[in-house]
């Protein structure tokens, strides 16, 4: 199987084989590692030097500042501004994107984490994960980082039951969990947002409402029948709560933007 980065190279090769003069790249770095992003930038620079015009679609401001010669900013489907290379200021881009000045992009907050909620002890699954232990407290964000191939994704999959640990234990609120499959983790209250949403996180040919309902069938079904009214109401609440931009609950997942 090709990695996401390798698949992108195949797509670019297809376009170049057709003698493309304009290349549209839609969120090309969404599922790439930092090293792969740097390789992508090198490729973009090379394509530009060959005289190929590139439309680089991204919401990552540091990427825009790195690759763009000019930026067109959209908001709610309308063009709201255009900035030349020497005008690519982060604050100005954000102002155009949100429609107002952002006084404090990263406000300082003081949090006091609560009790330990999740505890993993000695998790192992050869050859990627060896004796990993960590704790997550209530109200705390724990970053899991490392170089490519360091076992980050594999560790997350063990915590979610997508892979089964060979040794080690996982506890939630002091209760030892048996994670044989993702359903065990979901029922315990652990959910995973996958690295590759298209291949692992969504059923692209089904509606957004159905994708919402799949991991929650226990709530919306009885005797093998799905209560679509309950499913629709619950999904509608989340659409409003976290501002999901969809044309309707029947919209197919494959037609969503990357965000």
List keywords for this structure.
Rossmann fold, about 260 residues, 10 strands, single chain, four-stranded antiparallel sheet, alpha+beta
Write the layout of secondary structure elements.
Elements: H1 4-17, E1 22-26, H2 34-49, E2 53-57, H3 61-67, E3 70-75, E4 78-84, H4 90-98, E5 116-125, E6 129-137, H5 152-160, E7 167-172, E8 175-177, H6 182-188, H7 197-201, H8 208-213, H9 217-220, E9 221-222, E10 225-226, H10 228-241
Parallel strand pairs: 1-2
Antiparallel strand pairs: 3-4, 5-6, 5-7, 7-8, 9-10
Keywords: ATP-binding, Cell membrane, Membrane, Nucleotide-binding, Translocase, Transport
GO molecular function, one term: ATP binding
InterPro entries: ABC_carbohydrate_import_ATPase, ABC_transporter-like_ATP-bd, P-loop_NTPase
């Amino acid at each position: 199987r090709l990695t996401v980065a390798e698949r992108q190279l195949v797509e670019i090769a297809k376009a170049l084989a057709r003698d493309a003069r304009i290349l549209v790249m839609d969120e090309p770095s969404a599922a790439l590692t930092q090293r792969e992003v740097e390789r992508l930038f090198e490729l973009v620079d090379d394509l530009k030097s060959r005289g190929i015009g590139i439309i680089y679609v991204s919401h990552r401001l540091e990427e825009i500042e790195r690759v763009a010669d000019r930026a067109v900013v959209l908001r709610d489907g309308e063009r709201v501004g255009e900035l030349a290379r020497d005008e690519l200021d982060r604050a100005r881009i954000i102002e155009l994107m949100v429609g107002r000045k952002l006084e404090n992009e990263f406000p300082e907050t003081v949090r006091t984490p609560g009790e330990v909620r999740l505890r993993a002890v000695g998790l192992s699954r050869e050859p990627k994960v060896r004796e990993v232990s960590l704790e997550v407290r209530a109200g705390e964000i724990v970053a899991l980082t490392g170089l490519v191939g360091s076992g980050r994704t594999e560790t997350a999959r063990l915590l979610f039951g997508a892979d089964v640990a060979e040794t080690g234990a996982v506890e939630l609120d002091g209760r030892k969990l048996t994670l044989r499959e993702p359903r065990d983790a979901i029922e315990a209250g652990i959910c995973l947002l996958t690295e590759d949403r298209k291949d692992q996180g969504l059923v692209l040919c089904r509606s957004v409402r159905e994708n919402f309902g799949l991991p929650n069938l226990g709530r919306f079904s009885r005797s093998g029948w799905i209560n679509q009214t309950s499913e629709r109401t619950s999904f509608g609440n989340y659409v409003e709560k976290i501002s999901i931009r969809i044309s309707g609950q029947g919209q197919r997942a494959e037609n969503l933007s990357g965000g």
